[in-house]
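User: Sequence recovery, please. Input:
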C-alpha cells in the first residue's frame, strides 16, 4: 500500500497532480484506493495505473518547441475520449504484465513437472529396492 505522497515521490510528480488524476480517472482508480484514518492509500495495481497515466503525460510533454500549438478549448467529448484512450493504454499494459506473469507461471509449472517426474522415479527405485529386500527376507 502506498500513500499519495509516496506515489507522488516515486512517480516524480506533485501530490496535487495525483489528486487530479484521482478525480479525472475516478472510476478506474477507486477500486484500488482505500482510506485508513483519513489517509489515502493506493494498492499495487493503483500505483501501476498512475505510473501509466503519468508516463503518457510525460511522453506528451517531451515536445519540441516548434510543435507547440495554441491552446484551444477541449470539449467534454474530447476529454472523455482522452480518458478512454488512457484506460485502453492501461489495459494494454495490464495485459502485457499478465502475459509476462503467465509465462513465468508456465516456466514454473514445467520445472515442477520435471521435479515431480524425478521424485516419481526416485520413489519407484525405492519401491523396487524394498521389494527386493522383502523377497530376500521371505526366502
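Assistant: Recovered sequence (139 residues):
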Amino acid at each position: 500500500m502506498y500513500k499519495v505522497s509516496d506515489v507522488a515521490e516515486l512517480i516524480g510528480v506533485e501530490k496535487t497532480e495525483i489528486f487530479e488524476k484521482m478525480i479525472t480517472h475516478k472510476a478506474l482508480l477507486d477500486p484500488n484506493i482505500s482510506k485508513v484514518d483519513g489517509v489515502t492509500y493506493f494498492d499495487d495495481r493503483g500505483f501501476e495505473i498512475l505510473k501509466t497515466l503519468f508516463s503518457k503525460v510525460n511522453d506528451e510533454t517531451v515536445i519540441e518547441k516548434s510543435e507547440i500549438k495554441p491552446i484551444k478549448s477541449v470539449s467534454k467529448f474530447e476529454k472523455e475520449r482522452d480518458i478512454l484512450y488512457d484506460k485502453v493504454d492501461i489495459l494494454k499494459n495490464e495485459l502485457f504484465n499478465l502475459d509476462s506473469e503467465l509465462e513465468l507461471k508456465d516456466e514454473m509449472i514445467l520445472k515442477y513437472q520435471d521435479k515431480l517426474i524425478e521424485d516419481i522415479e526416485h520413489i519407484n527405485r525405492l519401491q523396487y529396492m524394498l521389494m527386493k529386500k522383502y523377497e530376500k527376507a521371505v526366502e
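The longest strand covers residues 33-36.
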